[in-house]
Amino acid sequence: MSSRRDHPRPVGHSSSFLVARSWVGPVSAVVLLGACVTPAQPSPDDVSVKLQAVLDQAAAFEQSPGMVMAVQLGDSTPWIGVTGCEDEACTRKMTPEAKFRVGSITKNFVGTAILQQVDEGKVHLDDTLEKWLPGVFSHIDGNGITVRQLLNHTSGIESFTESLRWQTTVYESPTQPWNDPYELLKLADELRAANSQVLPPGSQFFYSNTNYVLLGMIAAKADGHPVTDWPVVLQERFFNRLALRDTRVPARGEVGLGSTNRGYVNFYNLFLDPATGRSACSPPFEPPCENKDVDFTEQDVSNAGAAGAIISTVGDLLTWTKAVTKGGLLSRELLRQQQSFFKGCPPAPAECPPGQIEVGLAMFRQPRYGFIGIRGEIHGFNGTIQYLPEKDLTVVVLSNRTALDDRDVGPVPESVAAALYPALKTRN
Fold first, then answer.
1. How many domains, the chain?
2. Tally of CB atoms within 10 A around 364
3. What PANTHER family does this protein's entry cite (predicted)?
4. What is the pLDDT of residues 335-368, one digit of tens each?
């Protein structure tokens, strides 16, 4: 859920100027046993060294204070590695149990809840927004927008994170609570009123955080809760059933992370225009942002709502990624639809540039090898959850900084695949 670069970038931002120092805790010594080792493959120790090198190099490239990564082949024992520290001063080494804000990875939970409700007959993918949330907007017609279009970002609805009021308020008053979802929807409605180039619903992909605020409301309503109670849906359907004990949606007014981990963002860099070399955040931001990191750990993520509020750990997200990608949460037909992807670049998919991420329902596919999952970013943190069907390989990576110079963790799973399978062919 990023403000200036909403695309398959989910909630978030990034920053910090510390080259991460490598540290492997006790859990890191556990290496993919059995499934990764055949007479023609490296030993477990060699695999561990390769994975740690990938993680260390990623942290150094991103200038992230610290990172945690989990890698699992099939149902073998996962490798969990850490690098760097929980804070820029490196007073605390990073640990496998560290908690992170996971940004738009939240969307994968919300979207999957909707798909479960489709399986149950409570919701239909072709239901209109107006059917579920009549009159929710003043300037956006919900009659022509479907649940499917909300899920795959083809609704044409403006993203509330593009609102200057949202951007400046989050920057200047990060712990201010928001009236989620209504205040966020009002921002999107204001953007529509001022927009002279509206995208017709279903015409093309446009990443919008507003889509998932709406889906959170629909999910809550479909399960018989007030539309503000979307966290209850996730708690009942996923957190409890999958024993995700370190995963939660913080309550409105709760600004702490619940962990000693810290998150950093360089706002000057976040809003930097490479073409002009100027940052759009100064002015109108007060005080003007400087080209340096800010500790942005404490924030009220009612500013993100169902588009990006979840806090979790690499272990919980490993459990989640396997469940959501490999089956068990959805019927075979709904899983097939969730994992049916299209190229998300306008106007003609045939003209897509190489490397274009493909879009599914609350899920994306990376083009190089075919990893499926979602990346998440929120002020101070960025992460990714990915699964490679061809190798039954699951990778989760979490970083405690917003992407600096757009160097996010998205490519790290591909680096893992290249390290484990040097002969693996690319899809493009």
1. 1
2. 24
3. BETA-LACTAMASE-RELATED, D-ALANYL-D-ALANINE-CARBOXYPEPTIDASE/ENDOPEPTIDASE AMPH
4. 999 999 998 876 655 667 777 889 999 999 999 9
